[in-house]
User: Fold this.
Amino acid sequence: MENIGNEVIFYIIAAVMLIFSVMTVTTKHLLRSATYLLFVLFGTAALYFQLDYHFLGAVQVAVYAGGIVVLFVFSILLTQGLGQNKEKIKSSKLVLALSAAILGAVVCGYSLFTHIFPASRYAMGEEITMKTVGQVLLGSERYQYVLPFELISVLLLACIIGGIMIARKR
Amino acid sequence: MEIPFIYYLIVSGVMFFAGVYGFIARRNMLAILISLELMLNAVDINFAVFNRYLYPGAMEGFFFTLFAIAIAAAETAIAIAIIINIYRNIKNIKSDNLDKMKN
Assistant:
């Protein structure tokens, strides 16, 4: 019974994500595009929760929905205003983009459906605890990730400095 | 009966190629950046799904997703700073007007 509910929820999330990700790139209004992107990001977080990666879902909601989309909305309002933010797509570019997307999707789908994956070993309800996450993130042994963690922190520092340098008034 | 994991891959594939379409077709730089976010997210889903379904004992996909989210956030912040700076200089952010920055 619970599994059937799980499946139904997955199909709802998948449908929402498919529809809104296509609408994100096809809508003419930039602000609507950002809103649909928000829905897609929430759908992604819901998928992580469904895969029992609860920490990942929380990070996704906090960073993407709480940070990036707000940044997008601010910068859209700063650069566009509410009135004249429609844009027309040139037909030559439309053909190019559609052919690139469809060609890529066909190649990708072909390799996806013909490749034989190893058997799935998915175990329901098996969660990574916060303790493991912390230990693996800060351990320095094999399969532990302190070096990427430190690199990311340097990257974030560089990003802060770069953002201030680029965006300040001269 | 669990959900076959190819369904997840189909969802992320459609997301990715919607992003590719938007990246090429649209001219506003913010719209291009939004399409880029879509692509990054699709890749993150793939990492998590492969980790959970094929190698549930390992944690590589989990941490790759975590680091990818952090890098995506940093990249978006810098890109938006650049876009706002461009807007200050040439008063619009259409990508085909950007050759004016040369002089």
